[in-house]
Fold AI-2E family transporter.
Amino acid sequence: MSTEKYILQYARLVVIAILLIGCYQILHPFIPAIVFAMVVCISTWPLYQQLRRLLRENTTLASLLMIVGMVLVVIIPSALLTFSLADNVAASIESVKGFIEQGPIEPPAWLINTPFFGEQLIQYWQGLMSGGKEVGTLLKGLLEPIKNFLLDLGNIIGKSLLQMVFAAFIGFFFYRDGEALIKMLHNAVAKLLNGSLGTDPLAQIHNTVTGVVYGIFGSALAQAIAAMIGFLIAGVSGSSAFLLGAATFFLSVIPMGPTLVWGGASIWFLYEGSYGWAVFMVLWGIFVISSIDNFVRPYLISKGSNMSFLLVVLGASGGIIAYGFIGIFIGPPILAIGITLVQLWTSQPASKVKIISADQP
């Protein structure tokens, strides 16, 4: 190859590199929205196809209706959660501070009437409260980090709302032009991998994303709804029940996360002397909320992915760190796709993997 051809080849590579860098810089702010729209469209594509058939192949109307559903199911609840945190957290923390400043907290009635151990428990309670101002100062010091964490969480969710709005806009075009995009991706993957994986990676990615989304967020949504119903039955106000249900949704990605919510509510009912509602919340949490996590989640994930719960937690946590609140939705699917591609690649015998020599033109 002559020197002129070498120079021309390197010049092409430089131009391509500059274009790729420019495209990345332009699209970088919207990457979370693009990935979120992709995850939503992939996981709901069968529903979109059914809706499109009902509308006599009107792709525009079907795409619009899917985006309306996305707004109602994801964006509006996230906005309500942001407003609820902003309105209720500060007032609740201040109420607790005022309660602490009233003086030593009297033991609850159920503690006094506890058989056999009631007297010992009362003595322990009084010893704990004998610290007076020191105990109050300690409790108020613990409340401040909780307040800051909840307010920061509200800010993170609020900032991610804009990404969700962009995702809804992008998702409309993904739905409407989805078949053409899939065909283009098939051609690109075929040229890039040249059949080295021995299977269709797009089909595997679709199954993986669908399994992870249905398993993680389907079960999380079911747990949140079940928890909210339980709180409403127990007499919790609508706004508080919604906030506790939303907390159940987000905490469902960590082990025993929902237990912190319904367990804390049970303790509160117990302290208030509502023994019946305390027992009800424990039974509802064990047999309704936790049963969804123990049976529904593994079944749904196993249908499309063998992703372990550890990787789910890492994906959600890393997604939040990398992309904010919206990362909880896109972190696990991205990690699942990467693991699936690695598994497909490593499962092929070395003889079947085509290696392009550096000497080839």
Summary: The radius of gyration is 27 Å. Residues 353-361 have pLDDT under 50 and may be disordered. Residues 196-347 form one domain.
